[in-house]
Protein 1
Amino acid sequence: MDSTPSKPTDGPRIRTVLGDIAPADLGVCDAHDHLFLRSPQLAGQELNDPAAAAIRLRAFREAGGRAVAQWTPYGLGREPRELAALSRAEDVHLVAATGLHQSAHYDAATLRKAGDGGLENLFVAELTEGIAGTGIRAGLIKVAGAFHGIDAHARYTMTAAARAHHRTGSPIAVHLELGTGALDVLDVLCGELEVAPERVILGHLGRFPDRVAQHQAALSGAYLAFDGPSRANHATDWRLADQLAALTDAGFGDRLLLGGDTTVPSTPGLPYLLRRLRPKLELTLGETLMKQILTANPARALGAAWLPQQ
């Protein structure tokens, strides 16, 4: 696989750190992970070592991985130049994120700086011009809900994300706190703010293994990301196959995504997704469906008919 971007087409494109590619060129994709991440909530457990990131990415590539969506948003140590260098060196497509996480992950000065000039404009600039003057563009907007709902900060960031989406066509990826609040997020993003559900990726659904809630979220048309493994409740891990099978049986196999969500160095993350989780899930779901979940679904979810800046 050559990570050099192909020429843009008139159809949907995926915006990687090296440029736009056709969705068909994405390949096997970890739809939610982190190569770099720094947060006061994870003090002493930073992902800030390019050499360690290269080792993880190389192991993922050797297991058949071809692409990673990196959900680290503004102000949390994205390292865009390192992402571009890793993409070239390890021959893996990388999608970077703009957006803003929960307020607990920032100090007051960082939040003020993000809001200077309008949060929406920051997101648009990072999607269309580049992150922090690097010329390396983000390919998705990452925001976050609150526990079982939407707080003021979530509404603020989601409003900016929706407006940036309408100006660019970019997909919106949502951290659901412990997997909760999916329907509240959809009410705001897709109801009040008129984002098409198929442009929304809901993260961490497996951390709240309520099949009714998962089914209701799937009915909207949004993509459902099951990304882990869990660090707190192993029951969510052994229930994963049953959750995915139930959603597939209900007709939602084309809305499912998988990710490693490496948040601290001890997370098994990218290689684990393909080396251990994929063969285990193939026993329940079959190879054909697993190929769809890892390849076809993320190609649609991350693709966008990118609009010129408005």
Protein 2
Amino acid sequence: MGGELSDVRIMEDDGRGAIVSFPFNAAFVERFRMAFPRARWCDRHRAWRLTGTTAARRVTRWLDRELPATFTNADERGRDSFSFEPIVSPYLSTDSEIIVRTPYSRTVVAELRAVPWAWWHGEDKAWHIPFRSVDALRERWAVIEAAAQRNEPEARKMRSAAAKSAPEYEGAKARTNERRRQRYPVPATALPPLDRVLMSHEGPLVVMDVTGEIVPAEIARQHYPWSELRRDDLIWALWRRPTHDELIKAWPARHQPAADDFAQGWWQPTLSELRDARRAARSLERALETRKQGRSAPGKGARDRSP
């Protein structure tokens, strides 16, 4: 290979795989392709993309075998550096690698994903970082530790208690309760189609039924300020969130919605709106599936959430 360690990098690909980059070497590329026949070149990253939740772990182990001298020397230097200037934290321990366990935090996940060679070990529910990456970890540790402390159960309880005492708490609570009713005001003279993906001021939705019940003016003003643009009666429609599959199949509008569409409260979604909604729905469905799997396994705790 003959490259410096900094020339070889592994990055998480949004939880779906790994991005692997290294200087071009025909013989090394051939060995890489033989080891990972499903790897595909990604022009946007100028690197190789591997799919699978264990991709980062698999390619890390493979590179350890392929470049033993380079990594062994780098790990020894990193171990010496850590011994001279250790990271002292209840969230960190050491073995053959640096092991990080924290409460779940999106910030922690994002920071650790940016550390070269860091990988999530699903069995012991911890991040493993080889000593060669200690300098990168040290640069990010203050942010990681602060985020972990913010997500400790006691800290979360204190924030929740403080939020409940804030003046705007009652208003936020009322908005949340209204949203949970999954009802939406629609003009009696412009009823939305049923069982079709629509865009609204509450985001994408599918209207299941229109009850015909008149929306009280006070509720409309408090929770649906856009409705003040209407002069006709508003009635309640019952809705649900569209699935990712429904969003994929939804047909986008050819033109941007007009002012009248915003005033009636619903419109045919544009392509950009559908793309955003698809990403959000995919992430939500993936999170729900992960949570479902976690509930079916014994011994899961607050610190056991996989990124």
Protein 3
Amino acid sequence: MFILFILICAIIICLLISNYQKKRNAICKSKKQLTGRTTIVTGGTSGIGLQIALDFASRGAKVIIACPFNDEGMRAQNLIIERTGNRNVIFKFLDLASLKSVRDFADDVLKTEDRLDILMNNAGVGITGDFLTDDGMSFIMQVNYYGHFLLSILLLPLLIKTGKESENSRIVNMTSMTRYIGSMDVENYDKIGYWLKLKIYSNSKLSFILFSRELTKRLAGHNVVVNSADPGLVGTYIYDSCNVVIGWILRQLLNVFFKNPREGAQTAIHIALDEKCGLLSGKIYENCEIVNNKFFDNIENASEKLWERSIELVKLENHELKFLN
């Protein structure tokens, strides 16, 4: 009888938590159409990224989804076309763990597209492993941050060309609540055997905050804004990096009590579409609202150091930075 009572109490508590969390989950209310606009969604083939791509496609945008798996990419392309009726959906191969792949992808986009309105830096891996890529960087850091850093800089000419005073083009970086436990020791981010895997992931998500702040400063005078989205706790396959069974359990719990991928996509969609968000840069959003705290107010030194270190690691040349102040 006592065990039954405890079980009933536990179920009631879980339902109350679920009700509270679900009520806090904001939905993007923008009715903006994207006909004639071009968008890129990295990791747009599954989870949150797929939901973002579906939303953009349903609004009439040309949607380029990018991932390193051809079969997954083609399935996602067909799924988005089938669900939205928008046939202007293209899968392009992109392996963020390879600087060459990032450059090839960017070159292809610059050659084939005449505009880029929204760059959604969404792709990411969990705590997969602490090892070096062929480019000599931490795998987690390169996929989650350094690859996106290089991609963003290489695509800036097209973003700047597209942005107008009446409507800025936008870069959206996907951060995480783990940014709060990231380290400001940015010069050691790319080291192997130096951090716990969760810390590496946290550093990668903090990197987007630092990058967004620094890029905002250097884009002054250009019609491009860059902001960060925290999706919250979302049930996606990223948790399978811990363990497949544990990942499945976590996905179910998070989907029920916190957010499913569609709910997790809403803040990033809001940043990409909302009129007021298009006027602001270097901000962090949660549940479709700006985060108002002092935690990241004094990060200029770390932002500058990460910027310089990132340029060095991804081997950017001076002529590729000519668009920046």
